[in-house]
Amino acid sequence: MAIAGTSVRSRLGDVSMLRFLDLGIIGAVYAICGLGLLMIYSSSRARLEGQGISPLYFVERQVAAMFLGTILMVVLVLVDYRKIRDFSLAGYALSVASLVLVLSPLGDRSKGTQGWFALPMGFQLQPSEFAKVFLIIGLAGFAYQFMGEFDARRLLLVLGIAAVPIGLVLLQPDLGTAMVLGVITLAVVAAAGARVRDLLVIGLIGLVAVVGVVKMGVLAEYQVNRLTSFISPDADVSGAGYNTEQSKTAIGNGGLTGRGLFEGSQTEGAFVPEQHTDFIFTAVGEELGFAGAATLLLLFAFLVWRIWRSAALASDGFGTLVCIGVMAMFVFQIFENVGMTMGIMPVTGIPLPFMSYGGTSIMVSFAAIGLVLNIQMRRFS
Amino acid sequence: MNAPAADARVRLSIIGVIVFALFCALFTRLWFLQVASAGDYRSAAISNRVREVQSQAPRGRILDRNGNVLVDNVITNAVTIDRNTDPDDLEVVVDRLSEILEMTPDAIRGRLNDQRISQYAPVPIQTDVSIETITYIEEHSDELPGVDTAALAVRRYPNGTLAAHVLGYVGEISDEELAKRGGDYLLGQTIGKSGTEYAYEDQLRGKPSVERVEIDAHGDVVRVVDRKEAERGHDVVLSLDLGVQQVAEETLADAMTRVRTLQNKDQREKFETFNAPVGSVVVLDADTGGVVAMASSPTFDPNEFVNGIPTTTWEYLNDKENYYPLNNRAAEGLYAPGSVFKIVSGVAGMRAGVVTPYSTVVDEGKIWIADRYFFNAGNVAHGTVDLRQAMVVSSDVYFYSIGYELWRKHRRGEPGGDATQETAREWGFGSPTGIEIGGDPKGRVPDAAWKQAVHDERPDAFPYPDWQPGDSTGLAIGQGDLLVSPLQLACAYAALANGGSVPEPRVGARVVDDEGKVVKNVAPKTKGTIDIPPDQKAQLERGLEGVVADPSGTAAPAFSGFPFNEVRVAGKTGTAQRQGQQNTSLFVGWTESAAGRYVVAVVIEEAGYGASVAAPVARRVMEAVNGLPLTDLRIQASSGND
Asked: Which of A144, A224, B82, B295 is the most buried (most CB within 10 A)?
């Protein structure tokens, strides 16, 4: 009876846990996604129509990616995260392998970065995006064993685990994603109990590494220009500083209440480069104004708070660390992306979660949310 | 709670605080951009996307005093291309158009790349396109993406060369004009370059249409924000009389052609005919200074300038060989006036007291002054002459003696020594006339100071620093270093005709809007006044009337049969010598009748005696301005000595 009872509970458990699902997170995610679709449409339709392509081209593909992302999220909610934990190292290895493979001739090059696999129907897969989630799981799966007992050897081991994918991503070269991976690592070891002194050292090393990468000529020239034009954006308004200048103008043009949906001259006039991808925030800023942009930031803040809460509620160290990793990933991406459109962060190609056009980014973000929901939902078991 | 768990809580809290701080930073920056300094970014965004496209208004017309159209606009069909057409399409379009318009593809590309045309407006490729071609293009618009047709207003001078110098011409604004005019004009726009087109540019131009268009990052026009319609320029009504102008030009041209077949008998060493390369006629309303006719030969056709003047034409017009047809000789030409200047030296002599209206001089055909003889033209002796007779027969000796007496006063430092110069300046010589169409030189009234100055400057070319007797006598008969324009002569005679005011000549009479309502009247202006005692004036006028009406008058043959009972005529012939050239033929005079008082001045270079050529031309013009039947032009081949 007891055995049967256990088996029934364990089978039903997967379903009954769903009552603990954080609907706030799900609501925030889909609200952001909806806004994202609207802004992708607004910022890309003029350009697409100009090329004789359906103005819904990007929207349709983004919806497809969200659908796939949702499936991925559902799967990751239903499978107990502790089972995932057991496969953390295997996932990590898979991710590293894909990062190696993308550097081979099987990978595709775009805008100076060797970082894509071409899929049928024109879709692309970006292994560095998936590496974020696999690194979170991998680091958490390793570090949770030493929660609060982080000596130098263990710390170095954790850093070694992180260094491999970071190094491979830098070889593409994709400094933005490498920075995301670095921040994830820093957050996970901080939460896992690394000493403050060590954390400062790691942070310093990370900073030196970024500067070194910029100086060493690993990046494509345009990437360096975009990064450094942040220091003095007025030096070259039509060149590298153009992005930032047009992007700030678009956001400023929005004012308190915005110019109205499809009414933003910067947006509809296609003045902001990469607006439906990395600079999607400028479309929100211009057309929906401070009211819209602040609402979006509040949605993000709410989402981040719920993830932080999940980290605090998690029933074990692994859960806490995964949630902290996911939160670090989102926070850094939001801060860097929104900050760059407003001219307070250097320009790097980091997507705004759930907003920027880009299939892989959407799917990875959903997967990360799936993990958080999973951990929070099973906080009592 | 165990120690590691408590530590984990603290760490999570710290991470939470950091995240909170980061979001605060984003909100602060967002507030700063969108609320605190929104205005700056708003204007940056507006200037980012709104561009102004100006197109010029049709220019106002130019009419003569009776409302005849001298300058207007015609609507011509133009073919345009939109620069923002897809580049691949554009290649094909250029090839197809080059066949349709019979232009080379390079010529079309040249127009397309013309930076003077606004980037946001269609580029005119060809104007004056036939209606058949326009129809063809409109029917085949599917095959010609970006190509359109437009109606353009183009300047037209229906009478061709008539009054070309008064009307002037238009052309594309130059860099200098653009700098001078400020932001009011745009590159590639049309502006009046000379004549009335230049002087009344502000009235004729109108207000351009201004279309504000919103553009995107590629420069494609997204939509038209607003549009201010063009306001057509005002019409300018001239004091010019089309009929009189026609007679003046025809008669001048006729006289010049005919005198070129006549022998210059002053040239005794060889046979030569007159060159008569250049001539001019001015007709002024003596009371208002209004220009009734102004002819200058050789001339040009302002229509040639309308769509950009061809280089060969431009070179022709600026070639010395062709005597610079663009120059308005009536206002710009400077000449020694010869005997027509004697009205000034006569008045000066009386003013200085060296002659009275009735005092006489014995004219033996020559006079000994200082160290040599001075001769009459043709060495003819006129006997005893007073002021009147000296005018009628144009006795040089009479005026030589005035000149010499004035020189002696000058040398002794007595008052009146510079009476000729003073009188000349009062009558308007030596300073611009003030005519609004420009080309208005000062001329030159030589005096002792001037002579000293040119000597100081170039002692080799001007060896004598002192005012010599010959300078004074030369000035008295309108020779020497004196230089006057035909228009200055006309103004001086107008002062005599109207009782003493030297007018500032005007071609414009009034500016009217498109409903004919007067916007602005061009008020007559007086440049100065002259004051001659009545007895002197009467005697002077009797002399000038005798020139045309007295049987012994120099212009009597030219005016034979003229109805003096209907129209009073007074005038003076002049024949000016010029070093190395044939004589300049001059006549200046005025008529007085019910029609009004009109001055006529005729000056023809290298054409012989004033009595032979200029006077007959003046007669015919006087007939025209007074509405008399026109007689045939009679060049007086053997006439007179002045």
From this structure: B295
Tell which A residues from 145 to 204 touch B, by Cβ distance under 8 Å. 147-149, 187, 190-191, 193
Query: Are A294 and B30 within 8 A, CB to CB?
Result: yes
The alpha carbon of residue B2 and the mean position of all alpha carbons in its chain are separated, in whole angstroms, by: 105
Say whether A255 and B38 touch across the interface (CB within 8 A): yes
Q: By the CB < 8 Å criterion, does B43 face chain A?
A: no
B420, B348 in Cβ contact below 8 A? yes
Number of domains in chain B: 3
The enclosing domain of B208 has a CATH number of 3.90.1310.10
Percent of chain A, pLDDT > 70?
90
B30–A293: do the CB atoms touch at under 8 Å?
yes
Q: pLDDT-derived band of residue A244, with 50, 70 and 90 as boundaries?
A: confident
Report the C-alpha gap between A101 and B133 in whole angstroms: 64
Residue B450 falls inside a structural domain: yes
pTM for this model (two decimals)? 0.68
Band (A285; pLDDT cuts 50, 70, 90): very high
Contact at CB, A269 and B3, closer than 8 angstroms: no
Domain extent, residue B270, equals: 242-625
Rounded Cα distance, A189 and B195, in Å: 88
Q: With beta carbons under 8 A apart, name residues in chain A contacting B84.
A: none
Q: Are residues B110 and B193 in the same domain?
A: yes
Euclidean distance between CA atoms A369 and A132, whole angstroms: 13
Among candidate residues B334, B327, B281, B312, the one with its CA nearest the CA of residue B168:
B327
Considering only CB atoms, A248 lies closest to which of B41, B49, B222, namely: B41
Any A CB within 8 A of B84 CB: no
Q: Which of B563, B557, B611, B609 is nearest to B589 (CA)?
A: B611
pLDDT bucket at B563, cuts 50 / 70 / 90:
very high
B32-55 confidence digits (pLDDT tens):
999 988 778 887 777 777 777 777
Using the structure block, give the residue that is written with the tokens 């070639």: B319
A288 touches chain B (CB under 8 A): no
Give the chain B residue whose CA is nearest to the CA of A307.
B16
pLDDT single digits (tens) B261-300:
998 888 888 899 999 999 999 999 999 999 999 999 999 9
